[in-house]
Structure to design on (190 residues):
């Protein structure tokens, strides 16, 4: 359950201005409040949200993110959303003091930590791993082809010996195809 919750939250973490952020409408939904009420609480406490905790998306940023949500220009959100960094989400938890908000905030903090760990502990270098696999495959194919060539050379030598033997047999047959003198008493011969 916790893993699915963290994965759901991670899917709502976006990168804007080089920072991992969550948008106000996603947070409002998770906290079980209206986006309008969440924004009102933030506006009443602007001192708690410096620009590195929260910022409003520009029109260009919002348009580029909007394509990911598939929202229409008419319906849905009229104003550019607020983007909250990890610190901004933590500060927001102090404003929204319901049990749901507290539980959800703990899950969100875990999701941010998981994302940060993924970034700092990058999985094995995929390109390097692929390069290693390609080198191993090339080496294997080289060995297989070398073995194949050895077999081909051996087969070629054997075929040459067979051809040579057949040629010798044909030569011997031609020599033996000359009429031989029959052994024994022959009528009409003197």
């Amino acid at each position: 359950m916790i893993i699915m919750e963290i994965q759901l939250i991670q899917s709502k973490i976006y990168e804007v201005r080089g920072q991992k952020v969550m948008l106000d409408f996603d947070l409002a939904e998770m906290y079980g409040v209206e986006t309008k009420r969440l924004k009102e609480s933030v506006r009443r406490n602007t001192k708690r949200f410096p620009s590195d905790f929260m910022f409003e998306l520009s029109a260009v940023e919002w348009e580029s993110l909007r394509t990911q949500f598939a929202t229409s220009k008419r319906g849905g959100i009229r104003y550019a959303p607020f983007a909250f960094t990890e610190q901004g989400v933590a500060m927001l938890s102090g404003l929204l003091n319901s049990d749901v908000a507290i539980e959800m905030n703990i899950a969100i903090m875990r999701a941010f930590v998981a994302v940060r760990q993924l970034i700092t502990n990058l999985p094995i270098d995929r390109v390097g791993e692929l390069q290693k696999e390609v080198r191993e495959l090339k080496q294997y194919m080289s060995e297989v082809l070398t073995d194949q060539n050895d077999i081909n050379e051996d087969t070629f030598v054997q075929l040459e010996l067979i051809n040579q033997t057949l040629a010798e047999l044909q030569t011997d047959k031609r020599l033996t195809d000359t009429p031989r003198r029959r052994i024994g008493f022959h009528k009409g011969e003197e």
Q: What stands out?
A: The domain at 2-120 is CATH 3.10.260 (Mlu1-box Binding Protein; DNA-binding Domain).
